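**User:** My hope is that you can spare some time for a protein that puzzles me. As I understand it, each token names a local backbone shape. I would be glad if you read both lines and explained how they fit together. The protein I mean follows directly.
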Amino acid sequence: MRIGTKEERNEVFEALKDILRSADDRNPEAVENSTEETNLVTDLGLSSVSMLYLVIVMEDTFGIRFDDIGVQDFGTVGDVIDYIINKKGA
């Protein structure tokens, strides 16, 4: 079940796309065409180093900490959006 309003989700999604582009600029089209169902590893091809970078930048960007879950526990972009919205609301 997706959490947050449509506006909240869109705002987080756009910021997340910027972060994804900076994490790995080899496939900007995949990031631009991504949806909440896009798989971080199989669709975007993110490596473990890229995933670590994502965590660091998301923590700074959104003012949250990934203290109870690792980015490797996320399957899709939507999973990350849900987590960010949940942490921001906590």
